[in-house]
């Protein structure tokens, strides 16, 4: 007897309780540096761009 796999998707908000954010320091010390692409107007987290650039340099040298 074959069983069928049924997958369901639920669209809802993801809410984190305030005590968890306070414990992690995100309420009072949340300071991610952002950069803006002047041609497209999109904003990006600087740490992701730095990581991507470093990986790109590393891969080019390998």
UniProtKB/TrEMBL annotation:
InterPro entries, per database record: aa-tRNA-synth_II/BPL/LPL, Gly-tRNA_synthase/POLG2
Residue ranges of the TM segments: none
Taxonomic superkingdom: Eukaryota
GO BP, sorted A to Z: mitochondrial glycyl-tRNA aminoacylation
GO CC list: mitochondrion
Any one Gene Ontology molecular-function term assigned to this protein's record: glycine-tRNA ligase activity
PANTHER family per the UniProt record, alphabetical: GLYCINE--TRNA LIGASE, GLYCYL-TRNA SYNTHETASE/DNA POLYMERASE SUBUNIT GAMMA-2
Name the UniProt record assigns to this protein: Uncharacterized protein
